[in-house]
Amino acid sequence: MILERKKSKELSRLALARFAARAQREVGLAGEVTVLVTGDAELRQLNRDFRGKDKPTDVLSFPSAAETQPRGRKGGDIAISLDRAKAQAREMNHPLLVEVKVLILHGMLHLSGLDHETDSGRMERRERLLRAKLNLPSGLIERTAGQGRG
């Protein structure tokens, strides 16, 4: 499910929903996933409230507790800052839709239990493989190597 609190003419809710469903299948993530597209202010608040970091960020993932999903299936919520996505799309010189897809894939990988901050490159390798399969450009981990994301 795609929730748009902040909208852009460059994005199609249908295109995002189709991509999110495909990315979820490719990641092997079961359960329901909701993607919220909002702005920097809301991502900053979520980042502060849940991670203790008082700054906006591009994407956050919130895995569902296993007991809230039928038969222990995983899923969860992904929040994306449209403001950050627009700036990053300009920096990377690709369309906004492509950037939001990169962020959705990154969020799905986190929902599946991977964490590039602690997994010795496992998430980065998986993201690289899936980006190639999904025809996406460089991912967030590669872009920010050595910059300390978050």
Features:
single chain; 150 residues; alpha/beta; Collagenase (Catalytic Domain); 6 helices; disordered C terminus
Please provide a written account of the structure:
The chain starts with a strand and ends in a 7-residue tail after the last helix. The chain has a four-stranded mixed sheet, with helices on both faces. It is of the alpha/beta class. The radius of gyration is 14 Å and the shape is globular. β1, α1 and β2 form a beta-alpha-beta unit. The protein is built from six helices and four strands; from the N terminus they run βαβαββαααα. The relative contact order is 0.17. 47% of the residues lie in helices and 13% in strands. The protein has a single domain, classed as 3-Layer(aba) Sandwich (Collagenase (Catalytic Domain)).
What's a quick, concise take on this entry?
The chain is 47% helix and 13% strand. It has 150 residues and is α/β, with parallel strands linked by helices.
Task: Break the fold down into its secondary structure elements and pairings.
Layout: E1 2-4, H1 13-27, E2 33-38, H2 40-51, E3 59-63, E4 76-81, H3 82-92, H4 96-111, H5 122-133, H6 140-143
Parallel strand pairs: 1-2, 2-4
Antiparallel strand pairs: 3-4
Helix pairs in contact: 1-4, 3-4, 4-5
Q: How would you sum up the major sheet?
A: 4 strands, mixed
* Radius of gyration from the alpha-carbon trace, in angstroms: 14 Å
Reading the helices and strands in chain order gives EHEHEEHHHH
Q: Using the 3D structure, state the CATH architecture.
A: 3-Layer(aba) Sandwich
Total helices: the number is 6
Mind telling me the CATH superfamily name?
Metalloproteases ("zincins"), catalytic domain
Structural class: alpha/beta
Q: Give me the side-by-side strand order of the main sheet.
A: 1-2-4-3
Number of strands: 4
Could you list the spans in which at least 5 consecutive residues all have pLDDT below 50?
Answer: 146-150
